[in-house]
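Hello Y.,

Per our agreement to keep a running log of every chain we model this quarter, I'm adding this entry. I've kept the format consistent with earlier entries: sequence first, then predicted structure.
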Amino acid sequence: MNDPTPPRTEEFKLDGGKVLDKVKEIIHAGNVRRIVLKNEDGRTLLEIPLTLGVVGAALLPVFAAVGALAAVVTRMVIVVEKTQD
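Predicted structure for the entry above:
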């Protein structure tokens, strides 16, 4: 039985106004499997699974949802799950 290693994660705590720019930066950097947006209490607000080949116009609804959340939540935690290389 294989025991896969847990995914590598990073966390960023940001003010709502900076969240959308950071999400765009993270996606542009690549090697990201999933992005989770949480409030300060740790409650998950949005999960964004990213697959290979998702670029450009396919991300517009994601950016709209992140922007809407950022407008109403003052501080958020971005959890980035990276692919294992």
